[in-house]
User: Which sequence fits this backbone?
């Protein structure tokens, strides 16, 4: 056999006998990341973006204290980062912001200057959700068509919906509440979604907890994932968290897994993401 024919036969034989390429990892839409001052001081934007891309993230909803960190990261990766506006100008305001009237003009000024997909993540509990600052936050979200990313108990979630029944709320950490209670609120509020950030009770050893499995199967379109980089060190966990998330999602029906991994994020934030582009 001529050399050229032999070479061609070898190439064809190798192509046929080679194993199929591995399936690409399930995309992840991470809805709960922070890039606050202590993070950007240790991890420059380019390095942070590299970690997000290495983890296979399809999108990353990012907020920070102050908002400067969010703007730095969004400027570095506008195709990946979705900016959210926290009411905190520093970490120390987590427990006081809802009683500080100067928060309102700060939010108004940022909203007039930059584009966002959400207000939050903010911490609010019980009757504090009925205070004038929180009420203005709900109004601003409605005015600008933004989601509310609320780290709250169930009571504060209900109070926010009483202020605006058409509000769209992403319940951070699913309130750290029991799956049965989470399902109750999801049945009651059609515009409530839950992120699973900084929770591990819903899965172990690559398997979903039975009670959480019932919740995911009842509401496959209402859960999203998140890492919660609330300390700089958590940034180095983004890739590991994405890997762990893919493991437990694999124990769910594929269609449900895809929704929780990224499709719910696309539906919830898709129009807002498109509006970010100038």
Assistant:
């Amino acid at each position: 056999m001529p050399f050229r024919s032999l070479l061609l036969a070898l190439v064809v034989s190798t192509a046929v006998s080679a194993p199929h390429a591995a399936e690409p990892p399930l995309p992840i839409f991470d809805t709960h990341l922070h890039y606050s001052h202590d993070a950007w001081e240790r991890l420059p934007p380019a390095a942070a973006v590299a970690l997000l891309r290495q983890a296979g993230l399809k999108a990353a909803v990012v907020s920070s204290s102050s908002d400067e960190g969010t703007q730095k990261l969004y400027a570095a990766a506008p195709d990946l980062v979705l900016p959210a506006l926290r009411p905190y100008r520093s970490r120390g305001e987590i427990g006081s912001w809802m009683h500080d009237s100067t928060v309102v003009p700060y939010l108004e000024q940022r909203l007039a200057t930059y584009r966002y997909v959400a207000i939050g993540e903010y911490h609010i509990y019980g009757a504090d959700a009925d205070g004038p600052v929180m009420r203005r936050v709900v109004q601003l979200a409605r005015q600008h068509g933004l989601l509310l990313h609320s780290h709250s108990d169930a009571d504060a979630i209900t109070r926010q919906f009483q202020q605006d029944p058409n509000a769209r709320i992403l319940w951070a950490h699913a309130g750290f509440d029991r799956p049965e209670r989470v399902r109750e609120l999801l049945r009651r509020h059609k515009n409530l979604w839950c992120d699973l950030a900084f929770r591990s009770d819903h899965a172990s050893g690559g398997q979903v907890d039975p009670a959480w499995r019932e919740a995911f199967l009842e509401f496959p379109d209402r859960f999203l994932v998140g890492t919660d980089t609330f300390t700089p060190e958590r940034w180095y966990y983004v890739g590991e968290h994405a890997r762990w998330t893919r493991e437990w999602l694999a124990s769910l029906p594929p269609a449900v897994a895809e929704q929780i991994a990224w499709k719910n994020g696309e539906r919830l934030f898709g129009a807002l993401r498109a509006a970010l582009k100038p």
